[in-house]
Design goal:
Layout (H helix, E strand, L loop, with lengths): L9 H28 L14 H24 L11 H4 L6 H28 L13 H35 L14 H10 L1 H7 L3 H23 L6
Helix pairs in contact: 1-2, 2-4, 2-8, 4-5, 4-8
């Protein structure tokens, strides 16, 4: 790697890569579910895939399993890529480099929130709703809203990454090179050290907005895991 080439931490590349694949798969399969059963806002004339609901649900479940690790990494090691205390103010500086960066940070943060809304609402839905035409359930509406937000945020994320970092940034996410201290054999000890300092790090975080968003996201993830144990699909 040249000295001027950006470097991305190995764990970020792995979490970002896998979660990115799952998000794209969830967006595509989610549209195919809509295209098969809903069609209220338009449709594409393509053949119906019979097990598409099962495929979408499986992708969503894998994404939910990965989401806690990705969220915790994002809010701590990757917090500079999320909403900052002055991000909203800097969004007024349209056209300047900081505007592009601030827009990307906002999109990244909204993507995390939308991801939680998507997995939570998806876990609360019943598989038989869409095939029998029950489209007015509140959880399905939340799921559609989350899908739209994720599509928009993903587009902004990719566009802003290209604008801010260009090809070198995009290529750095695909590199397999890593520093010795980032070796997977050190992950467990580093995780234990991070976990022991988690409470202090959270309390010392001076970005109140980000602390609130992190709490909402983590509570949402926990809710997505446990809600099916207490609810049988929610009510409309």
């Amino acid at each position: 790697m040249t000295r001027s080439a950006p470097y991305q931490p190995l764990l970020l590349r792995l979490l970002h890569g896998v979660s990115g694949i799952l998000v794209i798969a969830a967006i595509i399969s989610g549209f195919l579910v809509y295209n098969s059963f809903d069609k209220r806002f338009g449709k594409i004339p393509i053949p119906k895939i019979d097990p598409i609901q099962d495929i979408h649900g499986t992708v969503g479940l894998f994404f939910l399993i990965l989401l806690p690790a990705f969220a915790l990494y994002s809010f701590h090691a990757g917090k500079k890529r999320l909403l900052q205390a002055d991000s909203i103010q800097k969004l007024t500086q349209v056209g300047k480099p900081i505007w592009w960066v601030s827009l990307q940070r906002l999109a990244n943060t909204l993507m995390l929130i939308a991801s939680v809304l998507a997995v939570t609402s998806g876990r609360m839905m019943k598989e038989e709703w869409l095939p029998i035409g029950e489209l007015d359930h509140i959880w399905y509406s939340f799921h559609l809203i989350a899908w739209v937000i994720m599509v928009c945020c993903l587009a902004i994320h990719v566009l802003m990454s290209s604008k801010v970092g260009g090809a070198p940034l995009l290529l750095s996410m695909l590199s397999w090179k890593f520093r010795p201290e980032e070796s997977p054999k050190n992950w467990y000890s580093r995780f234990r050290s991070w976990l022991s300092n988690f409470r202090n790090n959270f309390q010392n975080e001076n970005n109140l907005s980000l602390k609130i968003i992190e709490a909402i996201v983590l509570i949402g993830i926990i809710t997505a895991f446990v809600s099916p144990l207490f609810f049988s699909g929610g009510e409309s």
